[in-house]
Amino acid sequence: MRVTRTDIEKVAALAELGVDDASAAELQRQLTRILDYVAQLSEVTDDATSAVDERAARLRRDVVDPDPLSRTPKEMAPAFKDGLFTVPRLGELDRGEDAP
Amino acid sequence: MSWEPVVGLEVHVQLLTATKMFCGCSSRFGDPPNTNVCPVCLGLPGALPVPNEQAVRLAVRAAFALGCTVHPRSIFARKNYFYPDLPKGYQISQFEEPLATDGKLEFVSAERGPITVRIKRLHLEEDAGKSFHDRVPGMTAVDFNRSGVPLIEIVSEPDLRSPAEARAYLTTLKQVLEYVEVSDCNMEEGSLRVDANLSIRPAGSSELRTRTEVKNMNSFSGVERALTAERERQIAATDRGEEIIQSTMLFDAASGEVRPMRSKEEAQDYRYFPEPDLPPLVLTGKWLAAERAGLPELPAAKRERFQERYALPAADAAVLSASRELGDYYERVVKAGVLPKDAANWVMNDLLALSPDGETLALAPARLVEVIGLVSGGKVSRQAARRVLGEMVGAPKDAALAVAERLGLLQVSDTGAIDGWVRETLEAHPAEVARYKAGETKLMGFLVGRVMKRSKGKADPKAVSAALTEALAR
Amino acid sequence: MTDFVRAAREAAKRLAACEAKGTHAFLAWSEAALVEQAERLAKNGASGPLAGEAVAVKDVIAESQFPTTCGSKILEGWRSPFEATAVRRLREAGALVAGKANCDEFAMGSSTEWSAYGPSRNPVDPTRVPGGSSGGSAAAVAAGAVTMALGSETGGSVRQPAAFCGIVGIKPTYGRVSRYGLVAFGSSLDQIGTLGKDVTSAARLLGVISGRDDRDATSLDRIPLGEPGPAPANLEGTVIGVPREYFPEGLHAGIRAASDRALARFKDLGAEVRDVSLPHTKYAVPTYYIVAPAEASSNLARYDGVRYGPRADGGLKDVRAVYRATRGHGFGPEVRRRILLGTYVLSAGYYDAYYRKAQRVREAIRADFARVFAQDVHALFTPTTPTPAFKFGEHTADPLAMYLSDVYVCTANLAGVPALSLPIGRDQGLPVGGQLIAAMEGEARIIRIAQALERAVDATAEVR
Questions:
Q1: How do strand C168-171 and strand B150-156 relate by DSSP bridges?
Q2: Could you tell me which residues come within 8 angstroms of residue B342 by beta carbon, excluding any fewer than 6 positions away?
Q3: Closest residue of A to B23, CA-based?
Q4: pLDDT 10s digits, B231-262
Q5: Distance between CA B233 and CA B251 in Å, rounded?
Q6: Taking residues B320-342, what's their average pLDDT?
Q7: What does the alpha-carbon distance between residue C161 and residue C170 come to, in Å, rounded to a whole number?
Q8: Cβ(B145)–Cβ(B127) under 8 Å?
Q9: CB contact under 8 A, B271 and C78
Q10: Which of B248, B330, C144, C323 has a C-alpha 20 to 30 A away from that of B1?
Q11: B216: closest CA among C212, C198, A95, C333?
């Protein structure tokens, strides 16, 4: 399964990882090799048709009981103003399919 | 070429729980920013989600109220994307195996009459934080109080055929969800949010063409306006021979226009996969049966029952069943002995006039019943009753009779006094009396009016009418 | 009544000696912090099964006195405002946190060579790796700085370094120990594990930290394991399964010799040794290297510089630029590789062929174990690693070669079953580990069997 330069750029964009030209070529090689290796799973024909998870989630009572923070948002934030976390402005309301 | 729009709606509704979906933080609206936060809803390294039992209960209730099939086993899934107010870089939602599917919402379309809109799915998810793009210059500022608040997402099939129908769908949906006390469905506060999908096709065809997504609508009327604008835009473009491109359009309430999102990257790939931090959500048959049995009477059922049991016209039944509170109020007035038709008029015309926001009903049912009694007993005129009611809102403990007396609105039914006014009136208007006796019976109104004036409005008009009729017959 | 402060000062001496040799087992520790904890414990009249014990804590586990960097620059200086449940429990048991142990970045690696703060050295042979990703924890125990340590496992990261360093490492049943406060790598695989100078030490620590936690929805509904029992006198009636897939033709001679010796000891103790098969074993590494990076790519999305941690700033014009710079610079090459790999196998068009398929093969691997244990096999015995500790730089050029060293350990993570590694001998001076695997919730069984073997085997003797 050959991984192309476009593939690298696409997944890097999805993962918000800056990948420079020098690394891109090597990553192409390495990922191709790894994906070729893991592709042997397609040989397996006797795997379960559907993996059924028998567990059931334990639910929590609707009672206010937060795990306390020993340091406040203001103390942990790289940038904070007027009670809010701040980041350089995004170009537009661009969160894909979700309303802001 | 005649075009028809094809519309589907995705509605996100915040659930009325005390705490968030996956942590014990308060989900209350309006607290100082970033004060209802914890490791979980801030996405700190090492934090883990645990689902809120009440959120599940409310979601199931909503699903049953919308006629859905509730699946005893459903799976949480991660929806992966980056945004400043999404702390984990993914939202915990549901994807391949949602909580509920195959529901419906019925209402009357102005264009098509009674219609049924199919609900494709209803699932649980968590809300993101709130981003402010204009608070701090050049920066996006984020409040994570809202991060993790429980939501249900309700997705309809594209069964709507006009912007007006979309609005009616939303109004009906809101009513149902309020009835089952799942959410307060307030678009202005953000507890109900809407995204729409719209495409057009030749009227009467059944094809589904390329659709656009419309976002940033902040009210039900905004939804109608936005969809109208987008429909027009697509029709105009198609008439010009242009192809409709799949895109996201943002509504601008100020101008009433829709415009494409400037920086739309290629379609998002959310890379959904089952949430490894949460085992499947499993609901027992017994629990589900109890929830379903515990549903209150829903709006449509109440409307029908009111029409049947109280012989009310459909329009009146609809008004009186607008909320559970109003419906219960009406029935208590009827139970106290007031005739259903009368009770309907009193509640719709008088009580609602005094309850401006329609939210809180201004007077207890017993008080209204008292005033109705005064009118039917002839103690107060129908008009005066309104003033009495208004006064009672501010003095809820005072008896209606006392209030009427204090306001000097008690009618005079004393026949002696009335006969006296009648006599004086007839003496003062001999010409009209003669014309009446000659056959102009509609002058009765005028004469009644003169008597009322003489009594300074205090006479009981029915008694006046009776006395006049008798006197004129002599 | 424990003299906490004295215990603290003695621990400090041992840590100093360990680090003075260049072991670099710790990323953060101080005598002052140890003494402060000791004073607090003394003041509260603390007691408990671990009273006065200094325990090293792997740096992917949230703890409040020192930074929790996960061996990464992206969390440089990050002081967690909450502690992991496992850390709270060891404090409640009277233990002191000795310091934060070095590890491969975000637990991704098998040697600590991927730590952004430099590798740790194997105390037995400082030219060789201590294993990973819990290499710092293993080195700290092997060097005698501490007698027990917390590590974490996703694909063998406690057992493999335990084997390389000649100590004991236990991976519990998935869900046995709360993951609340364990920085997530592969959520469906991750477990906090314990390392100790002997089976009893590792088991005691596990006993304290295990048990249901309402803050972790995947934690088993069980009470804590508690103190281990005494070592059994023999293993009469115990059936040890030997899966043939773990003993291939070309197996390293020293590993084979050590394993043969251990099997002979089992027989001497009265156990029955039986040949079994786990036919899907060869698919474990490829399955693991789809599932773990996929989950990691999602778990590491939160490191975006918005709410905490260092942020790449310098006049970046929009938030996406901040993401890319923060993450591009903050993550090391192995982490970036796995994020990209994970993103790829989850992406549209590839999800079915890779991730969905891998989860199905995983079920087949789980079923292999279940089938064998259903046939009255009490535990499986296998080598822990295909070779003893390798030299620095031997595998860093070829990621795949590094991944293949996890072949014997990642099966237990995929299946969720408990597993333990204990030292069973030396090959040319290098420690060799033997692995015991039991059915789900079978920790007590493998601890018992390991205790018996430990007594019967000279772990420092040359095997060939």
A1: unpaired
A2: B372
A3: A66
A4: 999 999 999 999 999 889 999 999 999 998 86
A5: 12
A6: 93
A7: 11
A8: no
A9: no
A10: B248
A11: A95
Could you report the per-residue pLDDT of C392-438, keeping only the tens digit for each? 999 888 888 888 889 999 999 999 999 999 999 999 999 999 999 99
- CA distances to B101, B128, B197, C270, C279 from B68, in Å: 5, 26, 22, 62, 44
Signed CA dihedral, B203, B207, B209, B211: sign only: positive
ipTM confidence: 0.96
Task: Report the alpha-carbon distance of residue B27 to residue B117 in Å, rounded.
Answer: 31
Pairing of strands B113-126, B130-132: unpaired
Q: State how far the Cα of B41 lies from the Cα of A73, in Å rounded to an integer.
A: 12
| Interatomic CA distance for residues C409 and C87, integer angstroms | 25
- How far apart, in whole angstroms, are the C-alpha atoms of residue B48 and residue B70? 26
How many Cβ atoms sit within 10 Å of the Cβ of residue A20?
Answer: 7
Residue C25 in contact with residue C126, Cβ under 8 Å?
no
**Among chain A residues, CA nearest to B262:** A92
User: Measured between alpha carbons, how far is residue A85 from residues B42, B104, B132 in Å?
Assistant: 11, 41, 10
Total domain count, chain C:
1
Query: Which residues of chain C lie closer than 8 angstroms to B25, CB-CB?
Result: none
Please check whether residue C148 is in contact with residue C26, taking contact to mean a CB–CB distance below 8 angstroms.
no
Domain boundaries, chain A: 5-43
- Phi, psi values for residue C403, rounded to 5°: -65, -35
| C195, C158 Cβ separation under 8 angstroms | yes
Domain region containing C86: 1-464
How wide is the angle at C-alpha B20 spanned by C-alphas B17 and B21, nearest 5°?
A: 95
Cβ-contact C335, C297 below 8 angstroms: no
Q: Is C70 on the interface with B (CB under 8 A)?
A: yes
Share of chain C above pLDDT 90, in %: 93
- Name residues 321-380 of chain C within 8 A of A (Cβ): 321-325, 327-329, 331, 333, 336-337, 339-341, 343-345, 347, 353-354, 357-364, 367
pTM: 0.92
Spatial neighbors of B391 by CB under 8 A, at least 6 apart, are: B403, B406, B407
For chain B, domains (ranges, CATH) are 3-287 (no CATH), 299-406 (no CATH), 415-473 (1.10.10.410)
Q: How far is CA C385 from the centre of its chain?
A: 14
The answer to whether residue C58 is catalytic is yes
End-to-end CA separation in angstroms for chain C: 47
- Domain of C355, CATH number, reads 3.90.1300.10
Question: What residues in C contact B76, CB-CB < 8 Å?
Answer: none
Question: CA geometry: angle at B389 spanning B383 and B392, to 5°?
Answer: 150
Across-strand partners of B338? none
Q: Closest approach of chain B CAs to the CA of C302, in angstroms?
A: 4
